[in-house]
């Protein structure tokens, strides 16, 4: 069972308080994009063994969306942060590096 | 291979059972194979079996990171059915179901196929209409199913409460030739038959890389050294994304945990398989008397082979509503497997961007029932480059928007 912290209201709770929203930081490709880009945006996923950036919603609380970084091999949570960013903030990256040196995720590292 | 028979048992009985041989060999890998299959689960072994049996390709290795049948093949609830809505799904699942009927004879290995019948309960008006539609579709597809009344459900399953507090039973989709089989035996039977054809099954051998030259696969790196191959089949369920990353492409898949549990053994009380998709739980009774219960998937990506407890609670709560008499059963074991789920909840049996690499994945929460059909079709695809069974399940369907949309048709329990 996961314990997550909502970065907005600061509540720390187990996963039934939240709703999982899948992979995070997906770049949207809309009209005018190539078929391959559009397919990648809609369907293809990183699905990594290890560090995974994902979106969660505090469904039974403040109702807001936020980001979580988690390890899919151990279920360890590295931290949560605002949904209003398109890349993880430096302190989150540092927290991951402390536990998983050499991690990578698309263009982030 | 020494055949198993009543005569063989009698013969061994006279000599302290010392004459039985190993069911399959444990060879060291050769330098090169025509075909390498990654993953010695049901689907991988079935693919190897049909490559040999139908296409005469026997220079084959099946390599496995852990032990044979130790992944989802040994973690499912063993349900076999083919009552799907879409034509392409019904074709491959019905092929599989029909191959299960004769599997014990074909493999000379008792897989304990038990065509005891499968009921999918309709507990809302939507489900009634949905399953009536499925029954009509199945009639056109040549899959034998019928929509039955609540009274008939009660006759078939006396322990069920059809008046239900929340969701009364309004009918059911009944497939009399569906059922269960012994999941381990399916993997073991195929492994024995493959080994007999001269194929090498190499366990405790992890793939560490996929070698390519000019966009074409040339071999794999493993923990037991490099192995060259002409063609490569990736049949690794939850770890498909990991292997695809080694080969340099991405897949429309996410890996999540799916859980199941079994109760203490009790006297025979239910001789069919019951699936309740609205409340989400499914149950059958094993030959040992345990109630075998399937739960739901977690919503988040996970490779740990364990799931969240609240899904177990939800499943058990739903089943107690449907079967009040099981409320005091103790549960013996609970476990999880990692399933790879696609957007349209249908599998991927396909060529890939790397020439010579084929992938069989995305079976999600419903792979066991498809094992022989999947192996039959995927072997044809690998041998000939085309199979009518797998034609609709290519990777290109996502780019083309040509889905096999069973997520709507089959509900959650799939």
Automatic annotation (TrEMBL), chain A:
Superkingdom of this protein's organism: Bacteria
Coiled coil: none
Gene Ontology biological process terms in this record: tetrahydrofolate metabolic process
Single GO term (MF): sarcosine oxidase activity
Protein name per UniProt: Sarcosine oxidase subunit delta
UniProtKB/TrEMBL annotation, chain B:
Subcellular location: Cytoplasm
Domain of life the protein comes from: Bacteria
Matches recorded under Pfam families: DAO
The protein's enzyme class: oxidoreductase
Chief place of localization: cytoplasm
Reactions that this protein is recorded to catalyse: sarcosine + (6S)-5,6,7,8-tetrahydrofolate + O2 = (6R)-5,10-methylene-5,6,7,8-tetrahydrofolate + glycine + H2O2; sarcosine + O2 + H2O = formaldehyde + glycine + H2O2
Membrane spanning stretches: none
Rhodanese domain span: 35-79
Cofactor(s) listed in the protein's UniProt record: FMN; FAD
UniProt entry tagged with the keyword Repeat: no
Record GO cellular component, one term: cytoplasm
Sorted UniProt keywords: Cytoplasm, FAD, Flavoprotein, FMN, Nucleotide-binding, Oxidoreductase
GO molecular function, one term: nucleotide binding
InterPro entries attached to this UniProt entry: FAD-dep_OxRdtase (IPR006076), FAD/NAD-bd_sf (IPR036188), Rhodanese-like_dom (IPR001763), SoxB (IPR006278)
Nucleotide-binding as UniProt keyword: yes
EC number: 1.5.3.24
GO BP: tetrahydrofolate metabolic process
Entry-linked PANTHER family: FAD-DEPENDENT OXIDOREDUCTASE DOMAIN-CONTAINING PROTEIN 1 (PTHR13847:SF287), SARCOSINE DEHYDROGENASE-RELATED (PTHR13847)
Family of this protein: Belongs to the SoxB family.
Protein name: Sarcosine oxidase subunit beta
Native source organism of the sequence: Rhodalgimonas zhirmunskyi
